[in-house]
Amino acid sequence: MKYSLAIAATFGLLLSANTFAATEISAQQAMQQHRVSIGALSLGHNVVSPDDATAQVSKLADERGATSYQIIAMHEPGDNSSMHINAILYR
Predict the structure, then answer these.
(1) Which of 51, 56, 66, 70 is deepest in the core (most CB within 10 A)?
(2) 31, 28, 25: which is closest to 66 by C-alpha?
(3) pTM value?
(4) Which stretches are transmembrane (predicted)?
């Protein structure tokens, strides 16, 4: 019984992990929701697409305790090098 309860609890936590992931918001949403900036981040290594950038920013925002983030700049160079992204983190 304890074993099945532990499995069910673990499975539930895994499914709910995405529920608590930081979400992307706009500047207008940040102002309307009175979000508090808790910092900023920049990415410039191993970012290959806009989807990859969003995923990496979301992951880092989670690690830093942010509930949301706003990507303020996304520069895609003309050559095949990594994209550069700047974001603001909010709580």
Answers:
(1) 66
(2) 25
(3) 0.74
(4) none
pLDDT digits (tens, 9 = 90+) for 20-76: 789 999 999 999 999 999 999 999 888 888 999 999 999 999 999 999 999 999 998
Residue for token pair 């895609």: 76
d(CA 61, CA 57): 6
Closest CA to 66 of 75, 54, 78, 57: 57
Angle (CA) 23-72-81 rounded to 5° is: 100
CA distance 43 to 59: 12
Displacement of CA 65 from its chain's centroid (Å): 10
